[in-house]
Amino acid sequence: MRVRIGLVGAGGVGARHARTLAGFDDVELVGIADADPAACAGLAAELGIPVVDTVDQLLQASLDGVWLCVPPFAHGELELRAVRAGLPFFVEKPLAADLAVAETVAEVVAASAVPTATGYHWRHLDTVARAREVLATSSPRLVGLTWQDKVPPPAWWSTAALSGGQVVEQATHVLDLARVLVGEVVEVHAAAAPSSAPGRDVADATTAILAFASGAVGTLAATCTLAAKGRAGIEVAADGVLVELTETSLRIVRADGDEQLQPAVDGRLAVDRAFVDVLSGRPAPPGLVDYAEALCTHRVACAIAESVRTNGPVRVGASGR
Ligand SMILES: NC(=O)c1ccc[n+]([C@@H]2O[C@H](COP(=O)([O-])OP(=O)(O)OC[C@H]3O[C@@H](n4cnc5c(N)ncnc54)[C@H](O)[C@@H]3O)[C@@H](O)[C@H]2O)c1
């Protein structure tokens, strides 16, 4: 039996998921809907699937699941419609541009039996599993998170009210890793270098101090002023070991030498495979991040954004409602 999937949002990441899903023998990609139907035409023609005029029409197409690949500002109603239709959904990160929308969706998802998954694909990397294993027995104390990047092409990205800003939209991947490797962040205190670019109100750079429940401390440093993506990753210093992790590399430094690894898993493919497996009735693979789990990461990112706005420390989860 093939899993029937619909796609909402035919932009950069929607196209990536569509091509991945179309490559799975056990998936039937039923149709694509987009607020701008013209945006779907090329992708639909490439994959030989129909453009569906409205999201509601797509949701009524006897689907087994829907992939929601829309920008941060477009979340909320789409997820609620999927839940009302009893339809499992995959949603790209971030969950929303702010916290209130994500908290509302999370409540509705929790009250339903609808399975969910999110686009935190780094969690599927075998290198993340190895880093987790090392740090589980060595008490992390100091964490460094970095996201050095350019301004991405979509126009909405440069308006903080639409994208959530760089920390919510991009650095959320490394905040998620910090939670996986070190545990919950309980308080943040952030500052930002305001935008120096006309027409962009997303900060040039953001830095934050993070306090973890375990007593570990950390920093986040993010900038979008580069011409191309620079370093994005996490460094964790623990008892006698340093772990340096990016999407493409893992280095574990101990007194007796270094261990260097590259992922054997393609996280971008694995994240789709994992949710298709769930929709096929197989157990959830370990890397799968459901909506409730992703919300915990989104709360940290939103707390950092709020700390910048209020110029003071913010307790994670105590803001944004
Ligand atoms: N996991 C990852 O590594 C990763 C990588 C890239 C992008 N993303 C995330 O994916 C999301 C989308 O990014 P993108 O680069 O594809 O953006 P994009 O602007 O290229 O595409 C978004 C598409 O969604 C459509 N859309 C907007 N509102 C809609 C609505 N209400 N209903 C239906 N369609 C709607 C737009 O018309 C557009 O075609 C962002 O949140 C981004 O952070 C994740």
UniProtKB/TrEMBL annotation:
<dbReference type="InterPro" id="IPR000683">
    <property type="entry name" value="Gfo/Idh/MocA-like_OxRdtase_N"/>
</dbReference>
<dbReference type="InterPro" id="IPR055170">
    <property type="entry name" value="GFO_IDH_MocA-like_dom"/>
</dbReference>
<dbReference type="GO" id="GO:0000166">
    <property type="term" value="F:nucleotide binding"/>
</dbReference>
<feature type="domain" description="GFO/IDH/MocA-like oxidoreductase">
    <location>
        <begin position="145"/>
        <end position="236"/>
    </location>
</feature>
<feature type="domain" description="Gfo/Idh/MocA-like oxidoreductase N-terminal">
    <location>
        <begin position="3"/>
        <end position="113"/>
    </location>
</feature>
<dbReference type="InterPro" id="IPR052515">
    <property type="entry name" value="Gfo/Idh/MocA_Oxidoreductase"/>
</dbReference>
<dbReference type="InterPro" id="IPR036291">
    <property type="entry name" value="NAD(P)-bd_dom_sf"/>
</dbReference>
<dbReference type="Pfam" id="PF22725">
    <property type="entry name" value="GFO_IDH_MocA_C3"/>
</dbReference>
<protein>
    <submittedName>
        <fullName>Predicted dehydrogenase</fullName>
    </submittedName>
</protein>
<dbReference type="Pfam" id="PF01408">
    <property type="entry name" value="GFO_IDH_MocA"/>
</dbReference>
